[in-house]
Amino acid sequence: MFAKPFLLQPRTVKETGNRKTVLDEPYTLFPDRDALLLKDFPVRVKVGDSLYKQSSGIVLSPVNGIASLEHSEEGSKIRIVQDGNFVGSKPWVSRTLQKDEVLETMDRLGLVSLDFPEHSLSAYFKSKTKTKLILLSPFTKTQDVDFLSELKKSQDCHSSFLQVLQSMFPEAKIKDYIFGLKPPIKNYSYPWGIPEYFASQTEKLSFSRIGEVLYLGPETLYNLYRALFADFPFIEREIALYFLGKNGGLRKSGSTIRIRNGQSLKFLFEDFGSQYSNFTVNSFYEKNPVREVQKGFYWDIRQHYSLIFLTHYESQRREFPCVECGECSLNCPTKANPMALVSSFGNFQAGLCMECGICTFLCPSTISLRDRIRNWKEANHGF
Ligand code: SF4
Ligand code: SF4
């Protein structure tokens, strides 16, 4: 298991399971508008009970407590006031898996594909019945957290899973870059965790063919193995913290932190709010809104994988004119020539662009090439 998370207060996540773990804020979940409620609220719930079902799969209760449904202008929310113990991690115990139980476990324990989070994991598997290629990748999308080293501790579980995987997809070739094959690079570098890029570099597949592959990255496998070999529900996620200072330097915290679904970030904001008044989630490439620490936030493990604290200054970034330095096109891993979108140098190769965001990140004029790319693709539908 992971080393003990840093920064966690006794009242938040402590796996000894006593009443000290009660939080001072209820867990708050935000079902999609078309979600199907699976309980009559208010109701007493236990960790892992199914609360509602939506397109990304079944969402489970992260704690024991009293769950109630509230409606507001922004939609509905489910608030759970914790009244019991946390369920801690259990060791993984390798065993022979049966085909039928794999999909059943995915649904019962609320798993999603964390490589393609819009799909529940069982729906993702079911959509690949005709696949000829299964790719097991050692890299997560952003590599915020190193799940590979966790998987490497459990080779016997991995072998059991490979056996059942082959029986579920007898026609498919499994290419295992976790234990068997060596990926073309030794250490992760961006954008190797993006499924399209990994498949293009290892299998020479064009980006548009990623749908033909069953792709499983290490975070998806980590949560799947927790479910299959320790019966642990998908109710929490290991995340990384970043800090962007006034001078623009981005610092990553040395440790990761485990946060439960719907958990309030109040305890983190109390620690960092005086230095960093704003935050955003995931990466800058995704352009999630910059929010104020003061207003609070509840974590959604299906959508959020990292937290970035910002100084007020950095939240006010604006664009300057292109200085034609060429950094964007020079560093584009697929040679899509994004510079063409803001200058007269050549043509933008939209079919090669996988929206990795490197060009946006490197631009000294802070031009959001990512927005230009999205607009271009929308305006030239089908290219
Ligand atoms: S154009 Fe930009 S976003 Fe697209 S692949 Fe190249 S670097 Fe990535
Ligand atoms: S990196 Fe920015 S400033 Fe440099 S050529 Fe590209 S768009 Fe222009």
Write out key terms for the chains shown:
globular; single chain; 4 domains; five-stranded mixed beta sheet; alpha+beta; Ubiquitin-like (UB roll); 383 residues; binds iron/sulfur cluster; Ion_transpt_RnfC/RsxC; 10 helices
Furnish the topology, listing elements before pairings.
Layout: E1 27-29, E2 36-37, E3 43-45, E4 50-54, E5 57-60, E6 65-72, E7 75-82, H1 99-108, H2 121-126, E8 133-136, H3 148-152, H4 155-168, E9 173-176, H5 195-203, E10 213-216, H6 218-230, E11 236-244, E12 250-260, H7 266-272, E13 278-281, E14 291-292, E15 306-310, H8 327-331, H9 358-362, H10 369-379
Parallel strand pairs: 8-9, 8-10, 11-15
Antiparallel strand pairs: 1-7, 2-4, 3-6, 4-5, 6-7, 11-12, 13-14, 13-15
Describe the biggest sheet?
A: 5 strands, mixed
> What share of residues is helical?
10-25%
Alpha-carbon distance between the two ends: 46 Å
Question: Can you tell me the overall shape?
Answer: globular
The poorly predicted ranges are: 1-22
Number of discrete helical segments: 10
Q: In sequence order, what are the helices and strands, one letter per element?
A: EEEEEEEHHEHHEHEHEEHEEEHHH
Number of strands: 15
Q: By helix and strand content, what is the structural category?
A: alpha+beta
How many structural domains does the protein architecture include? 4
Main β-sheet, spatial strand arrangement: 12-11-15-13-14
Mean pLDDT: 88
Which small-molecule species are bound to the chains here?
iron/sulfur cluster
Provide the β-strand percentage band.
15-25%
Report Rg: 22 Å
